[in-house]
Amino acid sequence: MGGNFIIVMNIIRLSILIILGLGAIWFAWRVFMTSSMVRSALSLLASMAILGMMFLVMEAEFLGVLQIMMMATEMSIMAIFMMMYMMDPGGMGNMDMSHQKKLSIGTSLVAGAMVIVAVSFSNWETIATEVPTPAKQNYDLGMELMKRSMMIFETAGTSILVAMIVSTATALPFKNKKDD
Amino acid sequence: MMWMIIGIGCLVSIYAIVVLERRLVYKTWEFGYPVAAFASYFIQENVKPRKRDKTFYETAPILFITVAVLAIGIFPWAESSVIANMATGALFFNAALAYIMVALVMAGWAPNAVYPMIGGWRFMGQLIAYSMPIVMAITATVMRAESMNMMAVVESQTGLWNIVYQPVGFLLFYAASLALTFLPPFDLPNAPGELEGGVFAEFTGTRLLIFRLGRIILIFSLSLGITHFFLGGWAGPFLPGYVWVFLKTILVACSFFVVGNLLPRFRHDHTLEWSWKLATPLALFNILWVGILLLL
Question: From the CA of B176, how many Å to the nearest CA of chain A?
Fold first, then answer.
């Protein structure tokens, strides 16, 4: 009885994961199929929020909630930056969102293949038989961030900060001192 | 039985908040106002802008009210009564608040009109600026509880409430709550008299009803947040825990309206400047303060 119940639960969980995954892919595809910048950014948000839900289904509570939270702010900020920089933010001028199609399709296929190869041939060590409690997950994540992966995260954080400062600086109006 | 009382308590609180807002802001006791407003919006014609973004126009009100309701789910009503006893409750509350912004950006963009769009982008700037102090104030309460679970946060305040333990955090959370619910003096996104309703300007009938109801629920959930993070949650003498939760929550909501009455609307640039230049460093100081107290 117990064994059957676990198998049924696993099948249900796998089905939900597949449905959510397909949803994430569908919204990711919508990002490029719409001509409105805000729609595009919010489609990406939907895709990312669904990834957060996938974490929740896999019982990684902290990562799931964090992903869902962070993406809301990030994608909204991206929406306003896209509005600022694009010539056709509202999609009224029928601008095509996709460009360099052959190159981008080629790049994404190669990148996808590389990820699949990396996942298939990685040494995953022993797979945990039980999901750790959320508190233990937080602790382990903190240890990972503060020890082994510290450099990666710090570098990523600094790069994002630099990118934000640079893009804000370029958006400022240029003042020619001679005109004053 | 317990859950029935809590459910009825929530409905009565939301009704009370609407009536008290009429009393404190418009100076009239109108006990029938919530029902009358509900009925009038419900039967009102749904006038839609011609060139609207249909998906966002329909999604925004639903998303707004859904996240406001979801935010309530993580708060405990008494020692063992909580709908979703999440280990990351405090973080979940934040996540829900972030989607309020998404809903309003959608609502601002969807009608394809000037006033709503300005209102929507204004709210985005405001929320991003004020979510920093709110997140850091919550972090400091979480540090004291050593857990993001809301039960643990409330239990950590036994003996000394967080309003006394970390007064700076409380003030920041309180001001940011006003900004997040866009109540006066932070009512820039819908600024009556300036933007003619702002983000809500092009919404009528049931959609506007959902927005207005959602906003009252949002005020309720942020008041609940202050009650649980800073005012000891269900702690209180004589009365049962959930009665204290409701009493404190309604009092906090009333104080929002009173503060709004006393202050004029802030300028948008001042609002943002104060958050980034003053509130965010103060929030960092608050984290340091709590850290020192915990180590002592």
Answer: 16
Contact call for residues B243 and B81 (beta carbons, < 8 A): no
Residue in chain A lying closest to B52 (CA): A90
Q: Where are the alpha helices (DSSP H) in B146-203?
A: 150-155, 162-165, 167-180
For B39-64, letters b (16+ CB in 10 Å) and e give: eebeeeeeebeeebbeebbebbbebb
- Judge contact between A53 and A16, C-beta under 8 A: no
Measured distance CA(B199)–CA(B115) in Å, rounded: 7
Task: Check: pTM over 0.80? Answer yes or no.
Answer: yes
A143 shares its domain with A69: no
CB B171 within 8 A of CB B214: no
Residue A161 belongs to a domain: yes
**B241: closest CA among B6, B4, B84?**
B6
Asked if B124 and A76 come within 8 Å (Cβ–Cβ), the reply is yes
> For the segment A112-132, what is each residue's pLDDT rounded down to a tens digit?
999 999 999 888 878 777 888
Domain that holds residue B283: 8-295
Contact A34, A25 (CB under 8 A): no
CB-side exposure of B170: number of CA atoms within 13 Å?
15
* B86, B105, B131 member nearest A61 (Cβ): B86
Amino acid (one-letter) located at B146: E
Please list the residues that pair with A61 across neighbouring strands: none
Number of domains in chain A: 2
Contact B92 A80 (CB under 8 A): no
What ipTM is given for this predicted complex? Answer: 0.84
Euclidean distance between CA atoms B142 and A37, whole angstroms = 37
Please indicate, yes or no, if residue A38 is contained in any of the structural domains: yes
Query: In terms of residue numbers, what domain contains A8?
Result: 1-86
In chain B, DSSP assigns E strands to: 76-78, 81-82
CB B101 within 8 A of CB A76: yes
Percentage of residues of chain B with pLDDT beyond 70: 100
